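Help: read this over?
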Amino acid sequence: QVPLVESGGGLVQTGGSLTLSCAVSGRILSSNVIGWFRQAPGKEREFVASIRFNAGRTYYADSVKGRFTISRDRAKNAVILQMNSLKREDTAVYYCNAVPAGYWGKGTLVTVSS
């Protein structure tokens, strides 16, 4: 089973919303912090948000606080990233990550157009 699989990317207009999902293998879900990172063209990969799945504690980058929400879907073994009030600078490939296991998903592209 692939440890992490992202879905939900796409094209959205400025101010719009998009929901990303990271399906997480059950064998790593309870012992890892699951996070979202993103990489814009020509830029380094940066932290977006993360969640300790069992405890539910969440962490956010300052750039997305108040606009993005990370949550867990226990029934689906998934971590959800709800993105609202999207800006052009949110355009990037979004990756799911598990720490300390060190797994990365293949990413899903989010494009925000004006």
Observations:
- Helices lie at 26-29.
